[in-house]
Design goal:
Blueprint (H helix, E strand, L loop, with lengths): L2 H4 L3 E4 L6 E5 L21 E4 L22 H13 L5 E6 L1 H12 L6 E5 L19 H13 L1 H13 L5 H12 L3 H12 L14 E7 L6 H10 L3 E9 L3 H4 L1 H9 L3
Parallel strand pairs: 2-3, 2-4, 4-5, 5-6, 6-7
Antiparallel strand pairs: 1-3
Amino acid sequence: MDIILRNNIHVTGNLESPQTLVFAHGFGIDQTSFSKVIPSFEHDYKIVLFDNVGGGKADIKAYSPKRYEAINGYATDVADIIQALDLRQVTFVGHSVSGMTGMLTSIHYPGMIDKLVLLGSSPRYLNDPKDGYTGGFDHATLTSLFEAMEANYHAWAAGFSKVAMRNEDRPELAAAFAKTLNDIRPDIAIQVAKAIFYLDYRGELPKVTLPVLVVQTANDIAVPAVVSEYLEANIPNSRRTKVETEGHFPQISAPMEVVAAIQSFL
């Protein structure tokens, strides 16, 4: 399969630069979510954008329930992209679940990624009371979430987009998120959401050998602040920074703060 078409890959910026920034979006959005971040890096970096299979303008025929029943399939896709484009000196900026796919890629395919930015990422969304771990969700909450998705996906998308995006003074942001959610085939969205919300990669964190930047936002329904603190405490060569915006999508709601955070790390 043509990987370029499979993931709707776009390469832009300084094509002669030896340094590459790969931007990977989270659930329910696509590569355009980084549109206000990209211009700040176009002069000095080769920039690679893509859509995760099952979302955006990725090839829907590439979606396989078996391949993507866990996010390891997406980590393999990242490795495919880096190999196909022969990318070097890669800093991988992974938003939400894509932060974990980038992390898994760095572990399973050593040497492909040089630095990792975890933008609103979590190693586990489900609370684990026996370990004293707070992920932000309990079993009852997730059960209700999936029941709502299955009962009326489009109504769920309208409500979820508002609480996830926050920034109530800019309702157009939540509306745009609702649109990209609605563009995903509901059965695919539900399966991918289950793979995300039930993942647990806490045991992988100590295996990361790269420099890692953990970016934390305020009032994030998906990733409470304590999760970013957990990442910083358990990833050996990591540091945490905060961006002063609410919600789960800082690259959309506060792009210049995200730019500043990434620039401080490069």
